[in-house]
Write a structure and sequence with these properties.
GO terms for molecular function: DNA binding. By secondary structure, the protein is mostly helical. It has a domain of 130 residues: Tetracycline Repressor, domain 2. 73% of the residues lie in helices and 0% in strands. It has nine helices and no strands. α3 packs across α4 and α8 packs antiparallel against α9.
């Protein structure tokens, strides 16, 4: 007697569908996207939003938390792929930003857009974006320490400003190449080592 293996397609549950829909829609349309649009896209009942996230603010915060973890991992992957040289690892970020900006779905920096759109200074999303920037700063600073930069924390501030500016300019000034300009400026920052 043989047993047949039955394979079933696993459909994501309401929580995951809400997260996926919100992650896409808040990036393409901003955090001001309507609840009805989120629910329709996720194909879930309003009750699911409140059961899983307590409301739209909780969903936005969870989307930001999820996105920051993914983006931090991307920074690490980019630097790892660039090899062992800290200078190459840091400059690779700007090379990757040029590719991201050239993509058809690029809409700018999710975190800058969220911070500007979330009018309530106590919205939990702000704490998540601040923490994300601290973590990226720490990644940059660690590479600058390895490079022997004389002011690694300050240089990390500058590089983070270049990253934010690159993403903002890439979204607001089509046809320009802000990543190339930022890379040139980053090279000057890196030359200020020891």
């Amino acid at each position: 007697m043989t047993s047949a293996v039955v394979r079933r397609r696993v459909t994501p549950g309401p929580r995951e569908r809400l997260l996926e829909a919100a992650q896409k829609l808040t990036y393409s349309h901003g955090v001001g996207i309507g609840v009805d649009t989120l629910l329709k896209t996720a194909n879930v009942a309003r009750r699911s939003l409140y059961e899983h996230f307590g409301g739209k603010d909780g969903l936005i915060a969870e989307v930001l938390r999820r996105s920051t973890a993914e983006d931090e991992a991307r920074y690490q992957e980019i630097m790892r792929a660039a090899g062992e040289n800290p200078r190459d690892r840091l400059l690779a970020i700007f090379d990757r930003l040029a590719e991201v900006i050239a993509g058809p779905d690029f809409r700018g920096c999710r975190y800058l857009a969220a911070d500007l759109a979330l009018a309530d200074p106590d919205h939990p999303g702000h704490a998540i974006t601040r923490d994300y920037r601290r973590r990226v700063h720490r990644l940059l600073e660690q590479e600058l320490v390895k490079l022997g930069h004389r002011r690694p924390a300050h240089a990390a501030d500058q590089l983070l400003l270049l990253i934010d500016g690159t993403l903002a300019a890439g979204a607001t000034r089509p046809g320009t190449n802000p990543a190339a300009s930022a890379r040139e400026l980053a090279e000057h920052i890196l030359k200020a080592e020891s």
